Amino acid sequence: MHRAKIHSGFSAVLRRAPHRLVGGLQLRSRPAFFCLEITQKRSHTVLLAPGLGDAIAAIPGASRDKQGHITVPVPDIRLDLLAKLERTHPVPAKVEVVEIARESMDEFVSAVGERLSAVADPAELSGKLLSELRASSALVLAVPCHPVDDDSVKWLQNAETALISADLQALEQQVCKQGAVGEDSELDEAKLRKALSNSKDPTIKRDADDLLKTVLAPGLNSLRSQLRAGLPARVARAGLEGQLTRSGQYHTLDPRFEDLARAWLNAIVTWKPLLVLADVPEADAGDAASTSDQHDASSIGNSSSQTLQLHVEKQGIPCLTACVTLENESAALAGEPEFLKEYLESCGLTDGSQGGPSNTDLRPWRSQSAKIVEQIPRLLNQLTYYTAGEKEARAWMCPRVRKDGSALPFSLLSQGQPSVPQDKTGKGGSSQQSEGVPASLASRAIHTSFESRVKNVLLWKFEDLEGLGISDSGPGAKERARAKGLMKKVSGQHLLLDGDVVEFDLK
Questions:
Q1: What is the rounded distance in angstroms from the CA atom of residue 121 to the CA atom of residue 118?
Q2: Rounded distance between C-alpha atoms, residue 221 and residue 68, angstroms
Q3: DSSP letter for each residue of 21-67
Q4: Which of 15, 210, 381, 485 has a CA between 20 and 30 Å from the CA of residue 463?
Q5: How many CA atoms lie within 13 A of 249 on its CB side?
Q6: Is the pLDDT of residue 193 over 50?
Q7: Closest by Cα among 288, 279, 280, 302 to 362
Q8: Rounded CA separation 110/155 (Å)
Q9: Residues 327, 497: Cα–Cα separation, whole Å
Q10: DSSP character for 289?
């Protein structure tokens, strides 16, 4: 058996190669014969905000492929500090975003406008638009917030209504007998039972009848009732319920439901997590504070955006305020600073990232593109942990799941995962079950084969490393923490929390 410790590296596939240090994988025994090549599952967030894609693509390190998929590094203050503590190079985690086609967005805006105008028979959303949305894992929706009216909440409600209508029809066509649509249509239990019996999971195949009766059928019927009542499907997901439905008649589903119903849930747009972008005019995009050191996100926007933010946060939906037009124009003028300065001044603004304005009549403006990207890991329900070695400090994102693979509750409105005390065995207390991910499952972010090979984990708490401070010479923070007894050696089933720094000891 070969032993290896993972300090940092790439998501990988195996191939034969001479023994050497590759991608931060440091071998601690006899030569092994594998090296690392990058692989990545394509999971993306759709932007329903024309022009925002160009702004995100302008973030340093971002790239766009021929299909229009934008891969962008996630801004991470902890990673930057960890790299300084270890005197190495930071390698951020990356996410993928796709801006919806302009004609599809125009169609969506038109459909919402018809509902706002109370048209008797509003147009249904096209299959092309819905397929773009269904292919995503999460949504970012720009909602217009004009200062002269207060229709932002109504606009969002009508947008959700259009999607809910399409979702209900799509769900019932998939799971009801003969694809019938309507309150009286019955589930096609034979079809559902066959789908469970054909599962690759032997446990699901064995218990197909029981899972159908106790989990899948009740869950699908509950989802149909929610959609028919005008509620988006996501309120059935733990952590996405919002205050408006926590004590209502609709409850979160069995933790096993999402895995069992995944094939049908992929077609439900409102099942996906949502980030709302309060899209204000240029004049309202500046910071109300007059100096750059007084910047506060709550000081951006107008009365309409503030009303929208209060509304969506009650529903458990995060909301950011930005001017999409300004984000797009600033990205286009990034290489022409004089023109950008002139454009901002014409809007009564100045570039807040360059320090305080020389003219006190101008309000500082800062791009919100990076803040939008920062929110995406939470939208995808991902946990971030770190590895750090001589070559690099790297952030890894893994799904927030339990040992059985079921998803942990979302945490969209929090600013980070709270630390939960460990018990003396190092296996994590019961209160940690709602937060941590088993280390063996988390290691799959580096390579899928690691799950069965993790023997032990060397664990550092980021707060402990931060407390030791940056040193210009001598050992890095990890070694200093080890010397002070701040490093723990835990099992492969230990629950990792957001921000943990690790080394995996492989069999």
A1: 9
A2: 37
A3: -BTTEEE-SS-------------EEEEESTTHHHHHHTSTT-EE-TT
A4: 381
A5: 6
A6: yes
A7: 288
A8: 11
A9: 34
A10: S
Contact 253, 240 (CB under 8 A): no
* Structure tokens that stand for 182 in this block: 């309507």
Residue 502 φ/ψ, nearest 5 degrees: -135, 160
Query: pLDDT tens-digit profile of 90-121?
Result: 999 999 999 999 999 999 999 999 999 988 88
Q: Which H or E element spans position 320?
A: strand 319-322
Residue with tokens 């009549």: 361
Can you read off the two tokens belonging to residue 186? 């019955």
Question: Closest Cα to residue 332, out of 50, 61, 54?
Answer: 54
CA distance 414 to 394: 23
| CA 507/CA 502 separation, integer angstroms | 16
Distance CA 473, CA 87 (A): 9
- Confidence (pLDDT) at 353: 80
Residues 6+ apart with CB under 8 A from 202: none
* Amino acid identity for residue 48 in this structure: L
Q: What is the distance, to the nearest Å, from the Cα of residue 15 to the centroid of all Cα atoms in its chain?
A: 31
Angle in degrees, CA 400, 402, 404, rounded to 5: 135
Nearest to residue 60, comparing CAs of 86, 87, 94? 94
d(CA 206, CA 215): 15
Q: Which two tokens stand for residue 360?
A: 């006190």
Instruction: State the residue for tokens 């601690």.
Output: 28
The residues pairing with 71 across neighbouring beta strands, listed in sequence order, are 63, 96
Residue 255 pLDDT level (bands cut at 50, 70, 90): confident
Q: Which residues pair with 393 in a beta bridge?
A: 90, 388
Task: Give residue-wise pLDDT tens across range 393-438.
Answer: 999 999 999 998 889 999 888 654 433 334 433 444 444 445 799 9
Strand partners for 72: 95
Greatest CA separation for the chain: 75
Task: From residue 307, give the alpha-carbon distance in Å to each of 49, 147, 149.
Answer: 20, 11, 11
Confidence tier at 31 by pLDDT (50, 70, 90) = very low
Res 119: pLDDT: 86
pLDDT, mean of residues 198-207: 92
* pLDDT tens sequence across 329-350: 999 998 899 999 999 999 999 9
In the numeric block, which tokens belong to residue 34? 């594998």
Mean pLDDT for all residues in the chain:
84
The b-or-e profile of 167-206 (16+ CB within 10 A means b, else e) is: bbebbbebbbeeeeeeeebebbeeebbebbeebeeeebee
Bridge partner list, 187: 176
pTM of the prediction? 0.85
- As a residue count, the chain comes to 507
